[in-house]
Write a structure and sequence with these properties.
The chain is of the alpha/beta class and 448 residues long. It is built from 15 helices and 15 strands. It folds into 3 domains: 97 residues, Orthogonal Bundle (Fumarate Reductase Iron-sulfur Protein, Chain B, domain 2), CATH 1.10.1060.10; 161 residues, FAD/NAD(P)-binding domain; 132 residues, FAD/NAD(P)-binding domain, CATH 3.50.50. A 5-stranded parallel sheet has the order 3-2-1-4-15, with helices on both faces. Strands 5-12-6-7-8 form a 5-stranded parallel sheet. A 3-stranded antiparallel sheet has the order 9-10-11, with no helix packed on it. The model has no long low-confidence stretch (mean pLDDT 94).
């Protein structure tokens, strides 16, 4: 893909329509070209079908990866999808957004020397998409248990938990603070990773099993309380996710043109016209995770002339993988390492640049300035457990819920998963596993 970068709108500051809409649509095409049938079978035949497969061990949801790849090689993509979805009901999203280079593909036995790993992510996407296109219903509900479970949050953890509980025969009510289902998949992933409304299509597939009611615009601690939910339901699952972005804590942060990267991505995901999303000419993104990469790349795709990510440590310490870092660089994003922000420089109340100081641990600290009319903060999101009410009943660690191996909290009858629990890795695939594990544990409690 040839990236269109010549902006028609050369206005300084944060402004919309730096590129024509048609040019934005061209820029926001598929990150990776999907596999077609013949190409998928050829790629699948590269797999050694290992008995003790390291790729399966590396998958947080434990998908039988050699098993589903063998089915693709044998011309049975729907059977492959069945294996995938049994362990990971969001196999479609994870095929698009998982950092496979550090998980399954990173440990592939072919990943050495001049060879390359089997393209597990694209093979998974091929099989799941094929099954969804055919409208196949893989799951049926068990006989009703007469029990109800309340799930807070319609993101990956909540939907995965709700689906498994519905399969097991329980009635589930999902309480979602926003007006759409999907959580991070709908609002937080880069637009070029989740095209054509896939997040909603997957959510519709998950809820099509029946027994799942989603109540939108109902936030915990706002429209409904924790005590009310405990009175209504036999068990609760909290998939709260995270709240707003963390503050930098530096002078000038309050200036116009300084905002959370998550909010920037959110607007992109919800707009009907990509070119209408305002972006600066010179954008500085502060942070080192996937949100930083996603925000920086999308700023370039919208027509920003200069985009720089600045991270306080080296490339190996970034949460975003080396592959993702290289992807950003290919799209024209510069990455500066070993620097931390000292101040946002304002002119008439608007961002005009960011002052940094070196963070390499040397005795002599050096300062430098990067011009910027837009500053995106991507240094993590703050937990928002406070909205749950009476959080003193829970064991908390670094603002997140402590859970056991079954994802049960310290409060009887309440489980939790996803980004709101302590010790997680903030990945969609891990949130799905949390929801699945919690649902199985809740089922044993509810029937026992």
């Amino acid at each position: 893909m040839e990236l269109i970068t010549t902006a028609h709108n050369g206005q300084s500051g944060v402004a919309p329509e730096r590129l024509e809409e048609a040019e934005c649509q061209r820029n926001f095409c598929e990150m990776h070209t999907p596999l077609e049938g013949n190409a998928a079978r050829v790629e699948a035949e590269r797999c050694y079908f290992c008995f003790d497969a390291p790729c399966t061990e590396a998958c947080p949801t434990g998908i039988d990866i050699p098993g589903f790849i063998r089915m693709i090689a044998n011309g049975n993509p729907v059977g492959a999808a069945s294996l995938i979805l049994e362990e990971n009901i969001m196999g479609g999203t994870c095929a698009r957004a998982c950092p496979v280079e550090t998980l399954c593909e990173g440990v592939c036995v072919r990943n050495h020397g001049d060879d390359r790993p089997v393209n597990i992510g694209l093979l998974q996407r091929y099989s799941v998409d094929e099954a969804l296109d055919r409208g196949i219903a893989f799951f049926t509900r068990a006989e009703s248990t007469g029990r109800t479970v309340g799930v807070v949050g319609a993101g990956p953890a909540g939907l995965a938990c709700a689906h498994r509980l519905a399969v097991l025969g329980h009635k589930v009510v999902v309480y979602e603070a926003r007006s759409k289902t999907g959580g991070l998949n709908e609002f937080g992933l880069a637009a070029y990773k989740m095209l054509n409304g896939f997040a909603q299509r997957e959510a519709d597939f998950i809820t099509s099993i029946g027994g799942i009611e989603i109540v939108h615009d109902t936030g915990l601690g706002q429209e409904v309380s924790l005590d009310e939910l405990q009175e209504r339901h036999d068990a609760l699952f909290l998939g709260l996710g995270l709240g707003g972005g963390n503050a930098l804590g530096i002078p000038g942060e309050e200036g116009e043109g300084v905002e959370d990267a998550v909010g920037f991505i959110d607007r992109l995901r919800q707009t009907s016209a990509l070119s209408s999303v305002p972006v600066g000419r010179r954008v500085v993104v502060i942070g080192g995770g996937m949100t930083a990469i996603d925000a920086a790349v999308q700023a370039r795709l919208l027509g920003a002339e200069e985009v720089t990510i600045v991270y306080r440590r080296g490339p190996e310490a970034m949460k975003a993988s080396i592959v993702e870092q290289e992807f950003a660089k290919i799209r024209g994003v510069s990455i500066r390492y070993w620097a931390r922000p000292a101040a946002v420089i304002l002119a008439d109340g608007r961002a005009n640049g960011v002052e940094f100081e070196t963070a390499g641990g040397s005795a002599m600290e050096e300062h430098f300035m990067l011009p910027a009319d837009m500053v995106l903060k991507a240094i993590g999101q703050a937990p928002h457990l406070g909205r749950a009410g009476e959080i003193e009943r829970f064991e908390i660690e670094h603002g997140r819920l402590v859970v056991d191996e079954h994802r049960q909290t310290s409060c009887p009858g309440i489980w939790a998963g996803g980004d709101c629990v302590a010790g997680g890795d903030d990945l969609t695939v891990s949130a799905v596993q949390d929801g699945k594990v919690a649902a199985n544990a809740m089922h044993q409690m509810l029937i026992g």
